[in-house]
């Protein structure tokens, strides 16, 4: 199949919903579930997160665009004939074996805490499985 055919077969509503679902999970994950621990393990204070750098709305817009692009890639990867089960499987494989192994560098070379690795990788496992399920189920 040619790349243009793959792109034309994408359900862009499913991509937007998949990206939105990741955003909601991210709010929960880095908020009430693991937010305090994530801040502590990074050595941040709440004030650090409010000061300097980009504004929160800009950060969220950039993050949503990046997440939507990831959802497009997953949709292209799993194809139009995928099921929710295959989407979950593909999402788990992407998160564990591509993202998770890549994030090991944070611990091994940057000497970040293992707890931070598990929080961040766990988030990726959750969102990629959910995005895969949405994209696999909704053609």
UniProtKB/TrEMBL annotation:
TM regions (residue ranges): 12-35, 56-78, 84-102, 114-138
A UniProt-annotated Pfam family: DUF1761
Keywords associated with the record: Membrane, Transmembrane, Transmembrane helix
Record flagged with keyword Membrane: yes
Keyword Transmembrane helix part of the UniProt annotation: yes
Protein name: DUF1761 domain-containing protein
Organism from which the protein derives: Mariniphaga sediminis
